[in-house]
Write a structure and sequence with these properties.
The protein is mainly alpha-helical. It has 2 domains: 60 residues, Orthogonal Bundle (Helix Hairpins); 104 residues, Iron/manganese superoxide dismutase, C-terminal domain (minor pseudopilin epsh fold). It has a 3-stranded antiparallel beta sheet. It starts with 20 loop residues before the first helix and ends with a helix. The structure holds manganese (III) ion. The site of manganese (III) ion (MN3) has 7 residues, from α1. The site of manganese (III) ion has 7 residues, from α1.
Length: 199
């Protein structure tokens, strides 16, 4: 298949002041576009014909590093835009809230652990909330990797590559993570993925 860059589900300035128009212009139009372009160049041969993005990510893991990095980042970013919304954050939908409380004790502890996972990821990568073996857990991964190749289903991910926050937060990754959790997360979309992962 040929991958295409999805449009942002909101205007470029819709996430201000927590994520600027300039950040989204670079991050979506330049970085994400480059992953799409590179993945399309690297998917030569019949091996990947008719395969979904998820299949390409899983099939290239450990076999074709260049394709895996670019297809993985295409997958991650396609969700990342939808994991945020203007006036996001706030309350978690019912079933997800129950699962988070069952897994972490308190919503506040989950928030702190998620932020800590993002802060502790050394260098470029992502932190995640994923469903694995029927349980909800926080994970962190390097570069373009994601829970799909570790037996999990990602339901929320935060991009901690510097290109995601350096314009707005400079080196203050903890402040970016806090703003992401408190003001940007689209919990309705996370809830939908959570219910789909449990079917
Ligand atoms: Mn990115």
């Amino acid at each position: 298949m040929t991958f295409t860059l999805p449009d942002l589900p909101y205007a470029y300035d819709a996430l201000q002041p927590y994520m600027s128009k300039e950040t989204l212009e670079y991050h979506h139009d330049k970085h994400h576009q480059a992953y799409v372009t590179n993945a399309n160049h690297l998917m030569t041969g019949a091996e990947f014909e008719g395969k979904s993005l998820e299949d390409v990510v899983k099939a290239s893991f450990g076999k074709n590093a260049a394709l895996f990095n670019n297809a993985g980042q295409h997958y991650n970013h396609s969700h990342f835009w939808k994991w945020m919304k203007p006036r996001g954050g706030g309350a978690l939908p019912g079933k997800l809230k129950e699962a988070v409380i069952a897994g972490f004790g308190f919503i506040e502890i989950f928030r702190e652990d998620f932020i800590q996972a993002g802060v502790a990821q050394f260098g470029s990568g992502w932190c995640w909330l994923a469903v694995r073996n029927g349980k909800i857990e926080i994970m962190k991964t390097a570069n373009g990797e994601n829970p799909l190749v570790r037996g999990g289903v990602p339901i929320l991910g935060c991009d901690v590559w510097e290109h995601s926050y350096y314009i707005d937060y400079r080196n203050r990754r903890p402040d970016y993570m806090k703003a992401f959790i408190e003001h940007l997360v689209n919990w309705d979309y996370v809830g939908e993925l959570f219910e789909a992962a449990n079917k």
